[in-house]
């Protein structure tokens, strides 16, 4: 099944049963987002900080990748945009660079919790006296809540630490690619991606702040990450850029972010989570992105399997999943059978779908933050 391009979908009024005209709305608004992030970061951030440099590099790299995609669609009139393999190569490359930098940089260190003591009816967490390189990451809702990548690779014997770092780099690549694509798929309705990303950004800013504060890190029994306070500066600019853009992107949109914005947004979220050792929380925090991606995978793979059998069977009325909630029966392919054709039983207005997705993301963000205490 050939998936409709996200930017094309956002501008196509034929998928909106309420008949809102969106032709002529400018796209590539992601340039505004990127500039709005980088200007305050360059003014207020500590540019020698390795984490801040990685965030800036990710923003520029994926922003340029998305810009090329939008440029080809708009100015060269090629609806396919940048070829998929080039997108994937670009996403894999920045993931590899981030993972390798965190592995090799002497500044990318943590002070782990090594003991918990009871003093005057209070639980006191003691950290290591010196910061060290760490392959540990947080697992949600688990009492002993750290997973060590080197332990996963223990079958490598004396090479398990090196193998653990290789696994960490691979994990970073997967996270950056998955979240970047998830954000791209989520950008199909007015205000959808910008609103969800702002909420996710707030949750990540909270995690970055408590990870950078030795007292709060001890209280919540999480790793203290020196230097991660610069991520709070970056994420504050990110949240501000999202809210500012949302003012003009809310329904009915006056500007679209395009792939320039959505690819960069997903990369920012993924890299930030990896830096603060919270990448395993992303399936919960970015649950909306995950469901959007999963719906496309299910729809595409199931259609291919059935097509080999000579059948045209689809699971959902449309994908990404948010399109299912606004698709009319008259807009479905008459030659295909839909397993979930009766769900939902009627279309919803685009603004209602968007707000409900925001509410879902707020709930998921709250649950993710609660993992600091619920173990």
Low-confidence stretches: 1-13
Question: Looking across the biggest beta sheet, what order are the strands in?
Answer: 1-2
Secondary-structure element string: HHHHEEEEHHHHHHHHEHEH
Rg (CA only): 22 Å
**Taking all residues together, what is the mean pLDDT?**
89
Summarize the biggest pleated sheet.
Answer: 2 strands, antiparallel
Strand tally, please? 6
Structural class: mainly alpha
Strand content: 5-15%
Number of helical segments with 4 or more residues: 14
Distance between the termini: 43 Å
Protein traits:
two-stranded antiparallel ribbon; 375 residues; mainly alpha; two-stranded antiparallel sheet; 14 helices; disordered N terminus
Short description:
This protein has 375 residues and is mainly alpha-helical. It contains 14 helices and 6 strands.
Explain what this protein looks like in three dimensions.
The longest helix has 27 residues, at 160-186. The strands form 3 sheets. A two-stranded antiparallel ribbon has the order 1-2. A two-stranded antiparallel ribbon has the order 3-4. It is globular and about 70 Å long. The protein has 14 helices and 6 strands. The chain is mainly alpha-helical.
Task: Spell out the blueprint of helices and strands.
Elements: H1 6-11, H2 30-44, H3 50-74, H4 84-104, E1 113-119, E2 122-127, E3 136-138, E4 146-148, H5 149-152, H6 160-186, H7 192-212, H8 214-219, H9 229-249, H10 258-275, H11 282-285, H12 287-308, E5 313-314, H13 321-324, E6 337-338, H14 350-370
Parallel strand pairs: 5-6
Antiparallel strand pairs: 1-2, 3-4
Helix pairs in contact: 2-3, 2-9, 2-10, 3-4, 3-10, 4-6, 6-10, 6-12, 7-9, 7-10, 7-14
